[in-house]
Amino acid sequence: MHRIRVPLAAVLSAVSAFVVAREDARAQGLVLPRIFGSHMVLQQQATVPVFGRTAAGASVEVTASWPGAKRVATRADAQGRFRVDLETPAAGGPFTVIVASGNEALRFEDVLCGEVWLCSGQSNMEWALRGVDGGDAAIARTAATPRSRARTARGCGCSTSKTAPRPLRSTT
Predict the structure, then answer these.
(1) pTM of the model
(2) For the segment 133-155, what is each residue's pLDDT rounded down to a tens digit?
(3) Which of the four, 73, 76, 136, 143, has the lowest number of CB atoms within 10 Å?
(4) In Å, how far are 35, 37, 39, 69, 108 from 75, measured between CA atoms?
């Protein structure tokens, strides 16, 4: 029978790495995916999920500035995950949405409620308007329409369903 000897330094290193990783996860605080942010558009007259991570068991509160908005609250689960459903109004804005947990808050300004369209495809879907007949005029028309928003989600390709984009972190 062979005995496996593990040096004490290796055991202590592994335990230290585990403790540091656990502390680092706690230190992240309030975190939401990058799909949430200032200048975002939320689907009008819908139930919109707001989700993220915070300390395990922490209370989370989401408030919005539109007329008749109801404060929604929940508690994070044992892994720190949370989700609330936010009821949005008819098209309008700009509004403010605040997600708070403990002494941290993420404040999203210039939020609109309206129609949200998602497009996806391969690289041929990404076509610059500059240089296309009528492209400059289309860009000028869009620039003159402040309630029209476009976002390109770069680098969000996922090889598995468990991969997620880099999160936003609380700055307070």
Answers:
(1) 0.70
(2) 998 898 888 878 877 777 766 65
(3) 143
(4) 21, 22, 27, 20, 21
